[in-house]
Amino acid sequence: MATKTPKKSTPIAPRVQEDDGDGTVVLERRTQKTRPPSMYQVVMLNDDYTPMEFVVMVIQEFFSKDLETATQIMLQIHIDGKGVCGVYSRDVAATKVDQVMDAAQKAGHPLQCVSEPVPT
């Protein structure tokens, strides 16, 4: 079984400036640049069996959309074959997918929902 050795991380040490003349040493703190988290879109896929009313109800319940917006998303799913219900961080998107899939399974519908990275 081949495994990769973990990369060693180099700690960010404070930069030391020389003595400023009166016997004290000044430390400068380096700021770390952080990137915003990668965003994922939750996409529902069309099927020929799940009722449109159920899809609208799921969009309203799990994505906090009003009736009109949920209906527009449902129609996009029906016409285009898929529709974006929301954009979230990776963990939140995965949770939304799990909630939708669980509700569909409990209701006996084959509704499919996936999360995918937001295209840049």
Give a description of the structure:
The chain has 120 residues and is of the alpha+beta class. The chain has helices at 52-63, 67-80, 90-107; strands spanning 15-16, 27-28, 39-45, 82-89, 112-117. α1 (52-63) packs across α2. The radius of gyration is 24 Å and the shape is elongated.
End-to-end CA span:
36 Å
User: What's the multimeric state?
Assistant: single chain
Helix-strand category? alpha+beta
Gyration radius from CA atoms, angstroms = 24 Å
Summarize the helix and strand pattern as letters: EEEHHEHE
Average of pLDDT: 88
Provide tags for this entry.
alpha+beta; 21% strand; two-stranded antiparallel ribbon; 120 residues; 3 helices; three-stranded antiparallel β-sheet; 5 strands
